[in-house]
Amino acid sequence: MAGGLESHTDGGDKRCQAMKGDGSQCSRKASEGSEFCFQHGGEKGGKTKAKGKK
């Protein structure tokens, strides 16, 4: 596996659009039908905002 960040436009897999507290983008895959991963609100039970978002 390559060490770089994956683009959300290659192959149709979208990356979570949440920003982490350090200003970097979440590296998880977005849940189907959402712009966010399960941890940032992409599925039932997830958070509604990324930590550190102002």
Give a written overview of the molecule:
The protein is mostly loops and 54 residues long. It has a domain at 13-47. Helices cover 0% and strands 0% of the residues. The chain has no helix or strand. The protein is globular. Residues 1-54 are annotated as: Disordered. It comes from Chlorella sorokiniana. This is Gas vesicle synthesis family. Residues 7-16 have a biased composition (Basic and acidic residues).
What is the overall shape? Answer: globular
Which strand-content bin applies to the residues?
Answer: under 5%
Percentage of helical residues? Answer: under 10%
Amino-to-carboxy terminus distance? 33 Å
Helix count, DSSP H or I runs of 4 or more residues: 0
Rg for CA atoms: 11 Å
Question: Could you describe the largest sheet, including whether it forms a barrel?
Answer: none
**Averaging pLDDT over every residue, what do you get?**
74
Low-confidence stretches: 6-10
Query: Strand tally, please?
Result: 0
Which class of secondary structure composition applies to the elements?
little secondary structure
